[in-house]
Amino acid sequence: MTTPDTRHLRLLLALCVGLASLGLLWLALGATRSALELWRELAGLPLVLRLGLIALAAAFLGASAWLVWRLLHPRARPPRPVVVADRAGIEKRIERLQSREAETARFQAELEELDRRAAAEDYYIAVFGEISAGKSSLVRALAPQAPVDVDVLGGTTTQVSHHRGELGQRRLVLADVPGTQEIGAREREQLARDEALRAHAVIYVASGDLTRAQDAELKWLRGYGKPLLLALNKTDQWSDAERHELLATLQRRYAGTVDRIVGVRAGGSETVLRRLSDGREETLTRQATPDTVALREGLLACLAASPQQLEQARASAVLGHLDEQLGSAERGMLERESRAIVERYTRRAIVGALAAVAPGTDLLIQGALATSLLRELATLHQVPIKQLDLDAFLRQATLTLRTTSSVILAIAGNALKAFPGLGTLGGGVLHAIAYGLIFDSLGRAVSQTLLDQHRFDQDQAQATLQRLLTEQARERLTHVAQLALQSLRRDNGSEA
Fold it and tell me: Which of 199, 257, 328, 396 is the most buried (most CB within 10 A)?
C-alpha cells in the first residue's frame, strides 16, 4: 500500500522522466533537421567539393575512433633503454680509482668473469625468484644428472650453485641463486641480482600471482633487455580451471614484459593419502614427477637468437651495472677527499684564530683562506667556478655569519664543555672553535652542492651553510673542538 507521500514522490519522478524524454526527443528532432539541411546544402555543392568534405568527415571520424580504441587498449610500455657502457671507459675509471687508492678488486673481478664467460661456449641461465618459490627443485628438474659446481662470487660468503645441463645442442649452466625478499638478507639478494645480470637469459620463478615486490623485480630484469621467462611453478596445487585462469591473468598482465609465460611442475616431494583394503588410511611421502616441457620449449625459443646477440645483451647488462657501481664508488671517493680538504682548511682557520692578538665577536670569513678552500673543492669535483661567483657567494655567507655569530659562539661554547677542565681556557679557544665550525660548515655546504648538482649552485650552498651553522650535531662539534685543542697543545709545545 502506498502512502500519500510515496504517491507524490512517484508522480514527481514520472514528471521528471517525461520531461527528460521530451527533451531528448526534441534534441533528436533538431539533430535530424540539421542533418537534412546539411545534406541538402552538400547536394548543391560541386561534386569535387562534396567528395572532399565527405572524405574530411570520414577521416575525422576514423581518427576519433582510433583515439578511443587506443585509450581503451593502452600499448604496453617498452622497457627502459639499457645504458650501454663503454668497456674502455669502464677500465679507465677503474684505473683512475686505483690511482687514488680506492678499492677496485670487485670491479676487476667482474670484468674477468665477463671475459671468462664470453670465451666459453655455455649458455648461462639464472633461475631467479623469491624464497620458497621452488627454484632449486626446478634446477634439479632441468639438470637431474648434473654435478654441482659451487662458486663464491662478489667477495661474499654466500654461494651460488651452478648446474650443468643440456637443451637441444646447447650446453647450459643453470645458476641457482639465493631467493629474494628474505628479511635481513640484503647481501644474498644483491648476489642474486648480480648473477641475473651475468646470465644470457633469466627464468623468473613464481608460485602464484605476483606481489607488488615481484612485479617490480620482473620489470627491473626486463629493463636489461635480455631474454626473460616467467615460470608459474607448483601448477599441480590448482585445478585445471584455476591453473588456466591464473596463467591467463599473468599473460594479460605481463605479455609485454616477458618473452614467455609457462606453467611448470618442478617435482620435489609430495604427500598423498592412501586408503588400504581393510579401510585404514596411511600418509605417504613420495617424489612428484616434474613437468618442464613447456619451460624447455620456451627457453629454447628465447635462446634462438644468435650467440653474438645474446652475448652482447649480457655484456651490456654487466657493463651497465658496473657503470652504476663505479658511480657510487666515485661519489664515495669524492666525499672522502672533500672531507680531507675541508678538515685541512678547518685546521688552518683554527690556527689563524688562535694566533690572533685580540679575537673579536664579529666572525667574518678569512677571505683568502675561504677562496682557496672553495677553489680546491671545485678543482676536485672538476667544476669551474668564476671569481665573480665566488665573491658573491662569500659576501652572502658573510652576511649570514653576522646574523648568526652569537649562535655560533654559543655552539662553540657547548662543544668546549664536552672536555672537562678545559671550558675556562678563555675566549681564544672559543674563538678558534667558532672559526673551525665556520670553515667546516662552509666546506661541507659547497662540497654537498657540487656532489649533488655537478655545478656550483649558490642558493643551495647558501641554504646548506645556514643549516649547518645553526645545527648542533654532536659528532661534528666534538671533532672541531678536538682540532682546536690539538692546535692549542702544539702551540704550547705539548705532545699532539
Answer: 199
Phi, psi for residue 387 in degrees, rounded to 5: -60, -35
Let me know whether 165 and 288 are in one domain. yes
Is this model's pTM higher than 0.70 or not? no
Domain boundary among 15, 47, 75: 75
Cell numbers describing residue 448: 654537498
User: What distances in angstroms separate CA 53 from CA 32, 40, 47, 56, 63, one per listed residue?
Assistant: 19, 14, 10, 5, 15
The cell numbers describing 261, all together, are 609465460
Q: Kindly state whether residues 294 and 340 are assigned to the same domain.
A: no
Q: Of 13, 48, 75, which closes a domain?
A: 75
Cα gap 138→58, rounded to integer Å: 56
Residues 296, 352, single domain; the answer is: no
* Domain limits for position 65: 28-75
Element (H, E) at 397: helix 387-416
206 contact partners, CB below 8 Å, separation of at least 6: 129, 130, 133, 214, 230, 231, 232, 233
Query: Secondary structure of the chain: what % helix, strand, coil (to 5)?
Result: 60, 10, 25
**One domain for residues 125 and 270:** yes
Per-residue pLDDT of the chain (496 residues; tens, 9 = 90+): 555 556 777 777 778 878 888 888 887 777 787 777 766 776 777 777 767 777 777 777 777 777 766 666 555 444 444 445 788 999 999 999 999 888 899 999 999 999 999 998 899 999 988 877 888 888 888 887 755 444 434 333 357 888 888 888 889 999 888 877 665 567 788 888 889 999 999 999 988 888 898 899 999 888 888 899 999 988 877 888 888 999 999 999 998 899 999 998 877 655 555 666 676 766 656 566 778 888 899 999 988 888 889 999 999 999 999 999 999 999 999 999 999 999 999 888 888 777 654 443 334 456 788 889 999 999 999 998 888 788 888 888 877 777 776 667 666 666 665 555 554 455 567 777 777 888 888 999 999 999 998 888 989 999 998 888 877 677 787 788 788 777 777 766 544 3
Alpha helices (H) in 209-288, listed in sequence order: 212-222, 240-254
- Confirm whether 311 is domain-assigned: no
* Same-domain status, 163 and 67: no
Q: Which of 262, 270, 259 is nearest to 243 (CA)?
A: 262
